[in-house]
Amino acid sequence: MLIFEHSRKNRLNYSQAPATRPAKNNIPDNLKRKTVPLLPEVSEMDTVRHYTRLSQKNFSIDTEFYPLGSCTMKYNPRACNSLAMLPQFLSRHPLAPEDTGQGFLACMYELQEILKDVTGMSAVSLTSMAGAQGELIGITMIRAYHEAHGDTGRTEIIIPDAAHGTNPATAVMCGYKVIEIPTNRDGDVDMEALKAAVGPRTAGLMLTNPSTLGVFEKKVAEMSRIVHEAGGLLYYDGANLNAVLGKVKPGDMGFDVIHMNLHKTFSTPHGGGGPGAAPVGVAERLLPYLPIPIVAYEQGTYRWLTEKDRPQTIGRLSAHMGNAGVLLRAYIYVRLLGAGGMLRISEYATLNANYLMAELRKLGFEIAYPNRRASHEFIVTMKEIKDKTGVSAMHLAKRLLDKGFHAPTVYFPLLVPECLLIEPAETESKETLDHFVAAMKEILDEIAAQPDMVKAAPHDMPLRKIDDVKAARELDLVWNPAG
Amino acid sequence: MSVPAELKYTESHEWVRLEADGSVTVGITQHAQELLGDMVFVQLPDVGRTLAQREDCAVVESVKAASDIYAPVGGEVIAANTDVESSPEKINEDCYAAWLFRLKPASADEIGGLLDAGGYQKLLDSEAH
Asked: What is the pLDDT of residues A242-278, one digit of tens each?
């Protein structure tokens, strides 16, 4: 039921409203609205109950295992939130003079330094507000670098077919032609295709490592050599940084520019599409082009670097400091973890993924890349099960809801038919993983005994099977009053 | 899997029918339709647009994924099936009847390079393993 459907005309909900109205305001008459806005007219108690009920219907990481992992959102430790909400941070004005905001600037500076250290890059800018913006910054810097060197014949960006769709979209937005290279049967980039693709037109390569297939590109050092020898630069998409955090540094793999999704790996909230934060790190040669502002520490004082300090910067991509609150949460997260904690993230994330993969394989699920160790995630393909029984990855995903588990990612990556992309993340206990395995076994038995029941799932949710085809074909997003 | 013998095919799972007037009609194969699942959106090239071979020129979107459609041969778009734009489910119902667009090929050579039904069946068999 929508909140509007609780509405009764002229019902007021005043107890929280200001007791007195401002005597006058400066809004000219011609700008004032003539009609009453269409808002629900609901009592305070009904409003509270409505939203509480909705929250109880929600599947969330606070209530259920959520095998979408860092791909979607890891658990956000409560401490990060409460410390970032200290009034001294909240009441800081973004345009306040530097000398009154030294504490905040110190946090940002230290975050830059920590991210540099953990990724092996020479410098970091925190300004980017989303992974896609991080990509845009990275490729814009690659373009700026080539242009500054008079190297204008480079018109192509090479991207493996396993990449996230944002990579080719970014390259095209930056004016490049995308050269797609295939993946071999083991899930690695096809090296012969890469060698054939590089040349004088190569501006750079965009790579996610570990890839979206959940495996580590073993030949990344060779790839780096091939692209660099052709005069191109390497971009690291940090989508899967969680798997290697503190263990392998993108800088050591030869990358020239990277973005890190703080809302993934560094555990800041990003439900509902934002706000995100995706700091960009660069190797020495791209340092002049980094977007401003950047925090510098000089003679015991923190200050913003501007165009004056960085004349070759690609400029500003967000007002002030990007999503300052998200950056603060990430800063607190890394300070709570310390360097050793950072290592434990990737160790437990990969241990959990490999444990789940081994247990599901034992049950008879087909692993898409069986000869490879999982990174922080792995892929099960339901293709054979679907061919035999008609039960698809989507059906299994819906049945998992009945068992009290959020479904993993389905039908991504596109390279693997009928796939489930499972990422437990480092925060789950062995008992939780075992419960998940037990549920998967139950579903496997159900598929054999009563496939039609599985296909009709979910059975125990507040809503039964949603007609997603109808929903997509007949979008109905705006509520209108009856009549 | 239905692979009509009278049609030509591409490795990117388009079917191509050679018409008596020398034009070609293009759609997506049964294999592609099954893989994508229920269609919810189709975008076709404008009539009059000139396409190079393998140029991406249309989009089909299902509940699972969005997928580009490539021109099997180069040429000018002479018709687009607006019927499937308004009713994308027709591709699921009968993908060989629900054509997407017609081209006037720029050269006959590219048609010769398309797969025949036997060649396409082999491609499907190799992808299955």
From this structure: 999 999 999 999 999 999 999 899 988 876 666 889 9
Q: Tens digit of pLDDT for each residue in A42-74?
A: 998 999 999 999 988 888 888 899 899 888 878
Number of domains in chain A: 2
pLDDT at A480: 79
Q: Is residue A374 part of a domain?
A: yes
Q: Is residue A242 part of a domain?
A: yes
Q: Which residue of A has its CA nearest to B40?
A: A473
What is the mean predicted confidence (pLDDT) over B48-55?
95
Give A277's DSSP letter. Answer: -
Mean pLDDT over the full length of chain A: 93
Contact (CB, 8 A) for A92 and A107: no
Residue A38: pLDDT band (50, 70, 90) is confident
The CA distance from A142 to A185, in Å, is: 31
**A333 and A358 inside one domain:** no
Q: Which A positions 35-64 lie with beta carbon below 8 A of chain B?
A: none
Q: How far is B77 from chain A (nearest CA, A)?
A: 24
Q: Which domain holds residue A214?
A: 80-337
CATH code of the domain containing A197: 3.40.640.10
CA trace torsion A447, A453, A457, A461 (10° rounding): -120
Considering the entire predicted model, what is its pTM?
Answer: 0.88
Q: In terms of CATH architecture, what is B19-109?
A: Beta Barrel (2.40)
Predicted pLDDT at B61: 94
Rounded-to-integer distance, Cα A301 and Cα A380, Å: 52
Residue A387 pLDDT > 80, yes or no? yes
CA dihedral A451, A456, A460, A462 (to 10 degrees): 160
pLDDT for residue A393:
96
- The verdict on a CB contact (< 8 Å) between B88 and A468 is no
Chain B contact residues (CB < 8 Å to A): 35, 38, 40-41, 63-65, 88-89
Q: In a 3-state reduction of DSSP, which class is residue A181? A: strand
Residue where a domain stops, chosen among A315, A337, A359:
A337
- Strand extents, DSSP E, A288-354: 294-298, 301-305
> A166-173 and A131-148 helices cross at what angle (nearest 10)?
40
CB contact under 8 A, B63 and A417: no
Q: CA-based diameter of chain B, in Å?
A: 41
In the DSSP assignment, the letter for residue A10 is: T
Predicted confidence at residue A137, as pLDDT, reads 98
- Whole-complex ipTM: 0.73
Tokens linked to A213: 């297939």
Cβ contacts of A77-81, under 8 Å, gap ≥ 24: A77/A267, A77/A333, A77/A336, A79/A332, A79/A336, A80/A267, A80/A268, A80/A329, A80/A330, A80/A332, A80/A333, A80/A336, A81/A269, A81/A329
